[in-house]
Amino acid sequence: MTQNRIESESFSSVDAAWLHMDRPTNLAVITGVITFSGQMDVQRLKDTLARRMLIHKRFLQRVREPDHRLGLPRWELDPNFDIDRHIQTISLPDPADQDALQGLVGEMMSQPLDLDRPLWVFYVVDNYLQGSALICRLHHCIADGLALVQVLLATADLDPDAEWNEPLPEPEEEEDNLLEQFFWPAVRVARTIGKTWRVAENLVQEGFDTLVHPRRLRSAAHFSKDATLALGKLLLIGPDRRTGLRGKCGISKRVVWSSYISLEEIKRIGYLMGGTVNDILLSALTGAFRRYLEDRGETIDGLNIRGILPVNLRPPEELDQMGNRFGLVFLSLPVGTHDPLKRLVTLKRRMNAIKDTPEAVVAFGILGAIGLSPTQVEDIIVSIFGLKGTAVITNVPGPRQPLYFAGQKIETLMFWVPTPANLAVGVSIISYAGQVILGVTTDEGLIPDPENILRSFYDELEFLKHWGRPSSSSVDRRQPGSTAPAPDVTGRLASVEPVSAEVHLAPEAAMCQALTRSGRPCKNRALPGQTTCHVHRDLTIGDNLR
User: Fold this and answer.
1) DSSP state letters, 258-287
2) Contact by Cβ (8 Å): 193, 218
3) Pairing state of beta strands 435-443 and 74-77?
4) Among 489, 460, 461, 490, which Cα is nearest to 474's?
5) What are the pLDDT digits (tens) for 91-146?
6) Which residues contact 236 (CB under 8 A, 6 or more apart)?
7) Residue 110: left (phi > 0), alpha (psi -120 to 50), or beta?
8) Does domain 8-169+177-505 have CATH number 3.90.79.10?
C-alpha cells in the first residue's frame, strides 16, 4: 500500500459530531447489504477495494482523540493497516435465507467498530441463498450516504469482465481550513444552491431525487434573515408525540427490507395522484405508520408524528468527497389523516414549505456547533433534538443500470443510516436499476416486529395503485380496510380498516385525476378514455407539480 502524503489532519466539526454520537444503544454506523447471485471471489474483492476504494485516504486512517477531549479529533494514517482485518468471511445458519441474513445484520448493528483501526469493515457472507452477500459497516464520521453511494459507483463495473487491476491512482490531497470548522460550511453551501437543485439528475434514477437544500436563498442577506428565523423554529420545536414508535432504546436491533418495487409503477401512481416518487413513498410510509399504530390499539385520529429527513447540501462537483455535507429537517407526517389523497396533498404542501426555508442549512451549522462542544454538552443537545422526532427517513438515489461488484452482479442493494439519541425507527429507501427497495430498522425492545411496518407499507402502495386507476367495474375502489375481498395483485394485501365517511373518492363519471399547481384536485372532467382533462393531457410525470 502506498503511503499517503498527509499523515494527520483535523476532523471537520460536523464529522466530529457524528463520531461522538456513538451510544451503546444507537451506534453512529451506516450499514449496507449487497446481495449477489453468484459466489464472491474474496481475493478479487480485496484487490478491487484496494485499487478503487482505498484511494480515499479516510479508509486508511484511524481516529486520534485530543488530550482530555479538548479540541477536534484528528485523522491519522494507520501504520499497521491490513486490508485482511477489514474484510472477513462468515456463513449463515441454515436455511441461509433472507430472514437469516436480516437477523445477522440486526445483530451486527449493536457491535461497535474498533476505534484503533480505520472505521469500516466488510463481511462476505459465503452461503446466502444460492449466491453470496456483502455486509458493509462504515462509521458515519467517514462520509454521508450520498458520498458512499458515489464510492460504490466508482468501485463497481457495468461489465462482469471489466478490467480491475489498473494501477493505483494518486490519493487526493485536502487542506485543513479552520474557517470551515463552524458555520462557514453552511454559508458556503447556501451559495451553491443554483447548481445543486436536482443534483442527482444525471447520475441516478430519473424521478427519484434526494432532498436538496433550499431554492430561494439567493443572497447572504436572505440567508442571514431566514436562518435566524429557522434557528428559532428548530429550537422551539417541542418533543414529538409519544406513541408505540418512541421510547427508551435498548441495545438489540431488528432489520427488514422489502422486495423490489417497480419505479415505473410508483411514477404512474404519482402521475395519476399528482405527486412525485418521493411524495408517493412518503405517503405510503405515513399510511404504514398509521396502520401499525392502529393495530396496536393506539388512538391515531388527528395524530402527527415527525420524521427527521437528511437533506443533501453537496454541490455536484463534491459528490464523491468524503465527509458529511447534509442538513436535517423535521417533517410532520399526517398519520391521523385517513384519506390517502388528503394525506398526499398535506405531505406535499409541508415538503414544499420546507424546501423554501434554510432549516437544513441551519441544522448543518448546529451539527458543526455540536462537534465543537464538550462531550457532556453534546450529549444533552443530541438528546434534546432526538426527542423532537420519531423516525429517521432517508432516501438515496442509486445507479440506473445493473452493476457488477468484483465480477459479481449486484442483485439487491440496501443500507440503513444511524438513528441517533433515543430514536427507535430508521427507514431507508434506495433505487437501483429501475426498482425501489425499502428497509426498516427498529429497536427490538420497543418495536420487535418491523416486518409489520413493512407489510403495512405494501398494503398502502397496493391501495394507492388501485385507487389511482381509472374507474371501471374491475377496479377496486375500496377504502383501506374494507371488509370486501380485494384483487390479489401481489399477494401481500392484508385486512384493512372500516370505511370512513371522511374519504371522498373520484366519481365514476371520470374526473381529471391530476392536481393543479396549488396542489388541489383538478375539477375538470377527463377526456374520453383518458384520466386527465384537456389542460393536463400533455403533462409528463411530475409536470403538474412544477
Assistant:
1) PPPEEHHHHHHHHHHHT--HHHHHHHHHHH
2) yes
3) unpaired
4) 489
5) 999 999 999 999 999 999 999 999 999 999 999 999 999 999 999 999 999 998 88
6) none
7) alpha
8) no
